[in-house]
Sequence to fold (290 residues):
Amino acid sequence: MSIKALIVDDSSVMRKIVDRSLRQAGIEMSQVFEAGNGAEALGVLQENRVDLILCDINMPVMDGLEFIKQLATVENATGTPVVMITTEGSEAHVVQALACGARGYIRKPFTADQVKEHVVPILAGKP
Amino acid sequence: MTPVNQPLTASHDHHDWIPMLELATQEVFELMLGSQLVKAITPTDRAPANITGMVGLAGQLCGVLSIGCDEKAAALMASKMLGVELNKVGQSEIADALGEVCNMAAGNFKNKISGLGDGCMLSPPSVIQGGDYNIHSMTETPSLEISLLFENMPLHVCLQIHS
Fold:
């Protein structure tokens, strides 16, 4: 199965690393969209439907937690799983992200195996 | 539970944090760049940095974590992170990569210190290009410093603790 993904991070280097890690994890992607913050990501989703969103938390303009809250207002994004990839690794941040609707949480620094472990079950429809 | 705005023991010099700062930095290079950092032994390994990444910490721990190195080392970091040849790396990618390395090292470090994960926020990273500068703190505060080698190039990690 080939998916469309949206990677949201204010670092273009990190967006490329996440892209590469997904491919190394064996996830085939027909299209990858990139956004530098939550507001840009909402703009991408107004025009495009994706199968998976990977999102940082600490970003300028609109952070990752606010972005997840705003996702409910975007018709194209209904039910799209969001996985947070962030340096904010505290328990409180994880709980907050999951409460906002994130389906997974990966702490930076990370390996492609960790990406696989978190993302593949979500794409397979497992809770 | 400790309130998030309550500073950690200000009288303590926190030198027992050095191994965790070193480990946090090493893990970032190992996982994200596939490189092993080694400890710098001789004083000649402490070459002045001409590019420095900085991340501010606020909350229970207030301070600045910086990573300084030569621009060649920063370019190699970007090359390894992006998986492209060294000559394909642009100036903005060099700064972006060093900023992210600094950000991940700061995040990884605070998550290793009990009680800091929830009570300490990180600023977005900043990168200073050039080496002719001094940082003056308004208070006399301790700093934790580590000298490492990245692919035989000096890397200087410093955590300035303000409170």
User: Anything to note?
Assistant: Residues 43 and 123 of chain A are 23 Å apart (CA to CA). DSSP finds five helices and five strands in chain A. The two ends of chain A are 19 Å apart (CA to CA). The domain at 2-123 of chain A is CATH 3.40.50.2300 (Rossmann fold).
